Amino acid sequence: MFKIIIKNTYQEVSEAANEFMRELLVAKKDAVIGLATGSSPLGLYDEMIKDYQNKVVSFKNTVSFNLDEYIGLSDDHPETYRSFMYANLFSKIDILDENVHLPKAIDENDLSACEEYETLLAKYLVDLQVLGMGSNAHIGFNEPNTPFESLTHIVELTNRTRLDNQRFFSSLDEVPTHAITMGIKTILKAKKIILIATGVNKNQAIYDMVNGPLSIEVPASILQQHPDVTVIIDKEAAAKL
Ligand code: F6R
């Protein structure tokens, strides 16, 4: 069962998401947090930075795991998810580099990178996983038709996802074709999940996730089976509910 929070503005969505993060970080100094990239969690990250600056929370003992990473970009490319996380969050808080984890595959055949990330994750329990969602209802980079049993794996990105992400690159050709991602089963191991989505282009996916049948064509529909998922959305994303 989902808990659904509907807000008027992106700022209110971000603040509502941060209430979950703050509650965890205040209660548990060595919290394990699962993080996403993309536009959806940016406002949440700004709120986390403010809480850190106001000494409400510290990340000194926090451990983070990101969902996914592109394959094929050079390490210093500004659009790697590692660069994104440092630019938008990690460089502005006191998290230790050694406690930051993102998957990293050398190429699309690098299966050992998947095993390594999964083995590392298995040593932790993610207390709070932050998710965004694609307009095709992907979570992480688990595109439609990914088996629900999937662990960390390498995916070929769909055209729709590459087009959605083209805005961060100078041309479609530059958008990577592959990524490494936590699997759906990996994501579902988190104790608590918050999913952030805003805007009209997410409203069909939100409807299908909440009301639709459980289907691998709608990866986020598997969240119906998780015991503790809160969906935090704006009115536009909620329009079809
Ligand atoms: C990113 C990720 C993706 C995004 C999704 C939505 O780490 O896992 O599933 O959450 O593509 O992206 P935005 O928030 O940019 O609409």
Account of the protein in words:
- The longest helix has 18 residues, at 10-27.
- This protein has a single domain, classed as Rossmann fold (3-Layer(aba) Sandwich), CATH 3.40.50.
- The protein is globular and about 40 Å long.
- It has seven helices and ten strands.
- By secondary structure, it is of the alpha/beta class.
- The strands form two sheets. The protein has a seven-stranded parallel sheet, with helices on one face. A three-stranded antiparallel sheet has the order 4-8-7.
- It starts with a strand and ends in a 7-residue tail after the last strand.
- Strand 9 (192-197), helix 7 (203-211) and strand 10 form a beta-alpha-beta unit.
- Fructose -6-phosphate (F6R) binds at residues 36-40, 67-68, 132-134, 138-140.
- The site of fructose -6-phosphate has 13 residues, from loops.
Question: How are the elements arranged and paired?
Answer:
Layout (H helix, E strand, L loop, with lengths): L1 E6 L2 H18 L4 E4 L6 H12 L9 E4 L1 E4 L9 H8 L11 E2 L9 H11 L6 E4 L21 E4 L2 H7 L12 E4 L2 H5 L3 E6 L5 H9 L17 E6 L7
Parallel strand pairs: 1-10, 2-3, 2-6, 3-5, 6-9, 9-10
Antiparallel strand pairs: 4-8, 7-8
Bound molecules: fructose -6-phosphate (F6R).
The site of fructose -6-phosphate has 13 residues, from loops.
